[in-house]
Amino acid sequence: MTITQPLALSLREVRKQYGDHLALDGVSVDVPQGSVFGLLGPNGAGKTTLIRMVAGITAPDSGEISFFGSPLEQSHIQNIGYLPEERGLYKNMRVGEQALYFACLRGMGRSEAEFELKDWFERLDVDGWWNKEVADLSKGMAQKIQFIVSILHKPKFLILDEPLSGFDPINAQRIKAEIKRLRDENGTTVLLSTHDMSSVDELCDNVALVNQGSKILEGRVDLLRENARAGRVDFKFKGNLIAFTAALGASAILYSVHSSENHVHDMVLGIPPDTPIEKFLKWATKEVDVLSCSPKTISMDEVFLRAVKKAES
Amino acid sequence: MRNWLVILGREYKTRVRRRAFIISTLLGPIIMVGFVALIVLFSQSQETNSKILVVDSSEILSFSINEKGQIPSCFECFPERDFLEYRFTTEPISEEEFLESDFTGMLEFDDGILQNSKALLQYETTPSMRVKSAIKRDLTEAVERLRVRMESDLDYETYKRLKVKIGLVTQDVETRDRNAENKSLVGWIFSMFMFMFIMIYGMHVMRGVIEEKSNRIVEVVVSIVKPEALMGAKVAGIGLVGITQILAWAVLSWLLFIGFGTYAESSGMLADIMIESGNTVSSTDLNTFMSSHEDLSFLMQINWLAMLGWGVFFYLGGFALYGSFFAAVGASVEQESDAQYLLLPVMLPLIFSYILNIQILEAPETTLATICSFVPFTSPITMMVRLSMGVPWYEVLISAVILVFTVYLMIKLAGRIYRTGIFMYGKKPSLLEMLKWLTYRNR
Fold this sequence. Notes:
The complex is a heterodimer. Chain A is α/β, with parallel strands linked by helices. Chain A contains 10 helices and 14 strands.
């Protein structure tokens, strides 16, 4: 039985062509409400095109986009926050005034926006910068302002395109924490496009992988990892390698082995899906002195590379 | 609509607050008036020591001798002025003697002047207009006095009372407008400002669009409002900056004019000028001065309010038309230097109307002028000249309607180029490509 989570965003067979270039070729994606959804893919895969469609900047040539159950339209814009990858600020305006401008564009009243901004400025340590010229801001500082501007109006749906680029590790961690807080406390759905796989591991509940205009992978991060693991376990024991390998027979596949002194061996083994790991362990302890046995950890980086390689072959 | 106003407000506020704008708005009229004043002052300071030797070798003027030497019997006709003084002699002097003397000019007063009313003024330094007209007036009066005495029994005052001077006022039968040819100069000045403001603020639009594009702010803004709306609000906002400056200049110029007038009235400067120009009007206030002065009276007949009202309308129309073009060009490039060749098709009609205006000033009622005052690309500039001279109201209205309609169409077309252009990075488009963008579907 599968529990269907309500969707914040759903793309059905979306297609977009620019001249001779097919940017998106019938892509379907479902983003569950209240989740962080990672949109992954190599450069030029079509991520920006997809994001621009959701942000209302371009429209698909064909296909459907629904937003919280109804077809995406101009009026939904107020519920969307958008931080594009290529972003900037007006140089001839002061920081606070500029943040207010964007807040007003997002439909906020002046006093409400001012109140919220003060709060966010304090939270992200930019409160002394209200009356400074934008030209005086460092890159990281400007990034913070842009981040604030995109979330200030408390959107139900937040699009973040490479939100961490330009941040030092400390501030990147801070932004990640804010993204999690938005999801957990406000129930904000986040569409996160990034190349930074560590942040995908840390933040995303679901991902979709796009390559050359097509979706090649989609699903929950834990399930994708589990799939990519394909039953592999890290197995460490002390004993006779040859005797153990012979005893393994068909009950497990040996992927790799690394032997060290005192007959200690590190192995990566593939256990068939129908064999529970406990059963295998029970058998193995009879044969050798088991030091450790755990499911192999697969990073999203690996999932990503493997999927792209598979798609290209 | 709300967002449209938010964007318009930003475009307007950020520009109006700039120091350069405030300074040029406040100082513009002062600099212009100051410039004119400087020229006047400069030319006056040069006139201070004009000294003319009147050579009356035929002894036409009868003289008496006093401490200054020979003075003419009718000394009223050669009055002393601070910028011009006369000395008289019956003995002709040679050119060498003249050049060595401190005289700036030498005037021959002989029979010729009585017969064909022409006198020869030889000079060492070119006499100014003011000196020349003063000499002309003085000579005229002297000759008149001589003739009246020789050929009639009247005294000169009676003659002066009898003499008439007819001023020719021209009037258009249809529009009932008077002295239209002088008024066209005012229209021409209006249209020059129109040209100037469309160019200056059109470039502002282009620069603003390029800034948004190269800074990538546009991506966020168009995710909230449609690109066409962003473009429209930008053009409107910057257009209003232009209007602000125009109105500020108009008010400041008017205040300066009134201020100057009051000063001239109270200091007796007007009275001096009026007496000098031979005008004998009892009242010496600015209005009387303006309307009695032949070269200035047309200024009082111009409907300034209508000129300003229509001026603002045609400026807004013209600016919307050209401004959206400038925006489309700005959206197609990433830096200003790349815009040069794309600007040519935008500039051509503007420059054409500018050149055409000089022609219209000379011959205001040609067919070309009439046609161009209807063609929306030239009408904002051309119509101003025609307006100052008086145009049937329905012609202005038709021209206005055509303009509004074309503006609507052009904003649509430019909007299409704009919305495609702002997302094109990396290559300079050709004009042909830009035309292709007109057919693209983006949203």
